[in-house]
Model the fold of this input.
Amino acid sequence: MKVVVLTGAGISAESGVSTFRDAGGLWEGHSVADVATPEGFERDPALVHAFYDARRAQLELVTPNPAHLALAELEETLGDDLLLVTQNVDDLHERAGSRRLVHMHGQLRSAWCTSCDGRCPWTAPLADGPPCPGCGAASLRPDIVWFGEVPRQMDRIEAALAAADLFVSIGTSGAVYPAAGFVQLARLWGAHTVELNLEPSQGTVWFRDARHGPASMLVPAWVAELTARRLSR
Ligand code: BJW
Done:
């Protein structure tokens, strides 16, 4: 059975990472146009660097929760039949043990040089304009996909969706495309579709099975159910 799992900010909420659109979320104190668009970065790089430097530093203080750990266990069972696609820019899936993973919106712990187009692992601040380890230019920006930019590895994701028997969406509001459209593609290509979210998402009607509650409860239970069903075949 081939499975594609899509995760969003809700899976990391119980680890202490803020979501975007919930009350008290990341967008509450910030205009999206200021901190999550290339135009905003061009206008005020210091503001944008401060926003991402603070979030990168916060990663030191958080750890994976039972939902991340359950998905890493699922990978041990399914191997190459699982693709985990995350919209999250934190590294909690990796720290839980997931390896077959696509960060479609980029990563906080990576920097992208707009001079040489190189990418490098990055844990320090970017606000002080450090040199790129590859070319030496002070042209590093957060390695994050902002609005209007193309998400990463779309060909790989679409191929996995086309081949999937099961598509599961976890902790995402379904407000941002192309990820919000994956459920429709998966259905079109014949997959069973499941939503696991705190509340009905914007796309909840597209899912055949929608379960609502905290990810730390729903995800381990769903993984146990899937594993038991697989073993009983
Ligand atoms: C819990 C929980 C718990 C809480 N347990 N659950 C008009 C129509 C259609 C599309 C467009 C349009 N105008 C423009 C577009 C395109 C645009 C877009 O979608 N805009 C929308 C606003 C309409 N998209 C783009 O520009 C994308 N690029 C693109 O389309 O390129 C074209 C192209 C595509 C494909 C191939 C080729 C070309 C790029 C999008 C980049 C998104 N980037 C961001 C910001 C990154 C920077 C940063 O991190 O600061 O990524 S936006 C932000 O939203 C972030 C997230 O990854 C993304 C999704 O958010 P998510 O994860 O869903 O979080 P929330 O907060 O919204 O929801 C959390 C959910 O969890 C809630 O439902 C809670 O209930 C739940 N929850 N606690 C379980 N404990």
Notes: Residues 8-10, 13-14, 19-22, 25, 36, 87, 89, 105, 144-151, 154, 171-173, 175-178, 197-199, 201, 214-215 surround BJW (CB under 6 Å). The chain has two domains: 3-17+64-105+153-231, 18-61+108-144.
